[in-house]
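From the pipeline queue, job 12 of 40. The input is one protein chain; the requested action is below.

Action: predict structure.
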Amino acid sequence: MVAHLECEVISPVDVVLSIAVANGPALADEAMTLTLDGSPIDMTEVLDDHGTRLHAARRVPRGRLVADYSADITSFALPAEVRPIDLVRYLRPSRYCESDRLSPVARAEFADLSGPDLLAAVSSWVGTRLGYVPGSSRPIDGAVATLLARQGVCRDFAHLVIAFLRACDVPARLVSVYAPGLSPMDFHAVAEAYVDGQWNIVDATCLAPRSTMVRIATGRDAADTAFMSTSSGLIVLTGMEVVAYTDGVLPHDDVDAVAQLR
């Protein structure tokens, strides 16, 4: 897994990056650097829920900021743990997943469905009714705006899936991932839904095999999982490159079967 970000800091800014692989998988090698005009600057690792690892740099002065991250995974972790609080938190409406507003649509479209059948139906509904159009959505758009526009990118697909599932009383959350096989290559976002005692991946884009995805960050929606967040200043992202690959041939992904992030 490789991530490279280039930014121009216009005025001193606090930066939080979420590009490191979450705690869990065994790593043969991992490296992360942050430089300003070629000189290293200090970062602090901050642990979040579900093994999420944030890296924060405070009051970064003006200049060219570059972040580089790489990791080589040798073995995956166990499936995600199930905490009682998560089954409460991820049923609630959130900023980008307005399940309360979309409840009438969800109840009408997915009445009498449950378990894996519900996950498959929601994924198919979203995947066939939205167009995947890079650049078509705004950072402030949530599930309602996506449903009205009928287009978006991976986070928009995931937000709508999550909103529908929560409206059907299924705990659901957003996960940012590295996704080998994704085209065009980028950070990817999928939904994770609690069904039959475990967290299952739901990816309505069907753009990459679910079984090879690697967890970065997990939360209510994109507000909790953005690859970079800033405050107290101004910064412009000027370049980004993401690479994710796996040894050998990519596995076939049976979209009708359940799958878990590890």
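Job complete. The chain has a mean pLDDT of 96.
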